[in-house]
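Worked example 2:
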Amino acid sequence: MDPYETGLLKGVPCNKKTNILSILVAIMDTEVEGRGLKLISSYTRVLLVNEIHELIITDEKEAGPGKEVNSISYLGFMEVKKGGVVAVGDKVSLEGKVIGEVAGFDETHMPNHQNIIIRSEKRVTGVGLNARLGDKIVIG
């Protein structure tokens, strides 16, 4: 029984946590309309050192756990250097500049990698952000 789906838990259960530190290992330059990402109901995920996960940006204001996201742009893939718990609402920064906040998670490609959906004012790709390989991504 999933405590989020049944309504036993609402929101992020973490009171305090450390930031997740990662670097970009691939940069993308693609936008998609009508993608149909189905965000899971959980508000948190654990990211382990050396895992690689995909970062996707949406400007859909209602994006969140249990919702479907259609308008997206791909930032790229990150490799986790310091793991931890990532939660909905965490700020995501690229080289010290906040680019948005975690809206939720899509498991389309699991167990290969998790899609981490970032809600932002404006959809932009990794190329549009002038991201470079090795750039630091901090989530927390």
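The chain is about 0% helix and 45% strand. The mean pLDDT is 94.
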